[in-house]
């Protein structure tokens, strides 16, 4: 019969995920609704940064490569709209978290 190794080694690869997730859990548990406001502001800021980066990339393509053919230009516009759409969802989620946190602060 073979001896089995320790079964706790199975969860060892999950340790970095746990260590990264500890900080937000502590933030939300210690700060309560104020933590939601902070998290909402951070998510909304990430969305705004994403929009600015997408616009910068689109502008850079136009400046560096000049006027592109119709098909290339359509692809660039589609990529820009896709990135802006996703960033808008991030901004909306951030605002929703911030409003929820402010509501929680007002209630408590």
Automatic annotation (TrEMBL):
It comes from the Bacteria. Keywords: Membrane, Transmembrane, Transmembrane helix. The keyword Transmembrane helix applies. The chain crosses the membrane at residues 9-28, 34-52, 86-107. This is Uncharacterized protein. It comes from Bradyrhizobium valentinum.
């Amino acid at each position: 019969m073979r001896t089995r190794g320790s079964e706790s080694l199975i969860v060892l690869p999950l340790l970095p995920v746990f260590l990264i997730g500890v900080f937000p859990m502590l933030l939300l548990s210690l700060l309560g609704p104020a933590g939601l406001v902070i998290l909402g502001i951070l998510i909304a800021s990430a969305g705004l940064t994403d929009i600015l980066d997408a616009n910068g990339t689109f502008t850079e393509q136009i400046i560096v490569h000049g006027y592109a053919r119709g098909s290339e230009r359509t692809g660039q516009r589609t990529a820009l709209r896709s990135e802006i759409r996703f960033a808008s969802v991030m901004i909306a989620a951030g605002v929703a978290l911030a409003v929820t946190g402010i509501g929680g602060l007002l209630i408590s």
